[in-house]
């Protein structure tokens, strides 16, 4: 059992981390860092609550610390946990600069600790389905991909993600997921061009983005809008042998928010009406969506810490994603296409 400290008890901590820490067998929750102990004890009556990270690290002495606090705290808190001889899992975005990301990787290497980033959407069912289709060479050569995460949220909410501040806005929220998936599939692009804007009335942070990634043999477009109602396009992948089009979002987030147990037979599965289609010259095939499997992230994380197995999302693999986000923000500010020339970084 891995002694685990949960740092932060907001939406992310309660929705995307707590169910796995309490329902999977490999973890023992030894403490929570929160300014609202009554909220924690309402859910976890027997788990110690600490008002500060200093106290938690000193008293709980966790083997693993999970950082789920606001984005601008990730670097400092991850560094503090590494310095306390703890393995670390950081919510995305990893950090707000590639310099900080690289520094954390180097620190983890010095401390001989593992460092991971919570890119759970590597385990979305639709993304796993797309990877399977590519492994089966169904597309021939992929030439164009559209990857979107649109929702209908035309009115801003009063929360840190949507208020003004470092690391706020939809691009720092969803951009890491969409760009990470592109890097996982295709590696780094040759160039990119981005448009990141505030379009909602009374909006204080960016709420819409579109980024085009230019590869030598393909073009990839990722984006998000808060004005898309109904069933939304998730993927449209076009190749020389056919294309895969998928609508709707992975069900796991809504299932977790509804409190569905991880052991429920329907957890991670989509209904048939949500399956995508692969179309080619003579017709179309209905493609059953693979089971989404966020549990696998946590299972692989435990194996990485205890048995030196590969990480589900090693920090070193995420540094280029932070670099792409920085470059995209620069492209949007300058209104032009920029070459992707990323500096080398050390492995974690």
Please explain how this structure is put together.
The chain is of the alpha/beta class and about 350 residues long. The chain has two domains: about 1-120 and about 295-310, NAD(P)-binding Rossmann-like Domain (Rossmann fold), CATH 3.40.50.720; about 120-290 and about 325-335, Dihydrodipicolinate Reductase, domain 2. Helix content is about 35%, strand content about 25%. The chain contains ten helices and 15 strands. It has a nine-stranded mixed β-sheet with strand order 14-13-12-11-7-10-9-8-15. The protein has a six-stranded parallel β-sheet with strand order 3-2-1-4-5-6, with helices on both faces. The mean pLDDT is about 95.
Count of extended strands: 15
CATH class of the largest domain, anyone?
Alpha Beta
CATH topology call of the largest domain: Dihydrodipicolinate Reductase, domain 2
Unreliable stretches (pLDDT < 50, length at least 5) are none
Largest sheet: 9 strands, mixed
The overall average pLDDT, rounded, is 96
Level-2 CATH architecture of the largest domain: 2-Layer Sandwich
Give Rg in angstroms: 20 Å
How far the N terminus sits from the C terminus, by CA atoms, comes to 24 Å
Number of helices: 10
> What's the structural domain tally?
2
The helix/strand class is alpha/beta
Name of the CATH homologous superfamily of the largest domain: Dihydrodipicolinate Reductase, domain 2
Indicate the overall shape.
globular
- Strand arrangement within the widest β-sheet reads 14-13-12-11-7-10-9-8-15
Bin the helical content: 25-40%
> What is the ordering of alpha helices and beta strands?
EHEHEHEHEHEHEHEEEEEHEEHHE
Which range does the strand content fall in?
15-25%
